[in-house]
Amino acid sequence: MNTNEKLFLRKSAPEKSARMVETIYGCKWSLTVYQLLANNINRPGEMVKSVEGLSTKVLNQCLKKNIEFGILNKINYPEIPPRVEYQVTEFGQKFMRILDDIEKLQHEIDA
């Protein structure tokens, strides 16, 4: 082999981001939650009331995953009764643009 030749190493998928996309698409409610947040529905009780079939337990699991990935922030207000709201992080906005691109790609495949 010539010393000027370059060897390429096997390229693999980015582990964390691939797992994140898989987890979010695997949760059938995440995309719905993003839609709710885009429509200024950011309180858990409001979210559950706005979507038929969405339970508080499943919503909380979905929100927790999104917070762990840094897609959403949880805001706790020091009030009585307690008030909690969710918002999309700056990273979450970037991530959602990627999801939009994936959806556009799917439309191209389907066409």
TrEMBL record:
InterPro entries: HTH_HxlR (IPR002577), WH-like_DNA-bd_sf (IPR036388), WH_DNA-bd_sf (IPR036390). Pfam families: HxlR. SUPFAM superfamilies: Winged helix' DNA-binding domain (SSF46785). Coiled coil: none annotated. Residues 13-111 form the HTH hxlR-type domain. It comes from the Bacteria. Keywords: DNA-binding, Transcription, Transcription regulation. One of its GO terms (molecular function) is DNA binding. This is HxlR family transcriptional regulator. It comes from Shewanella frigidimarina.
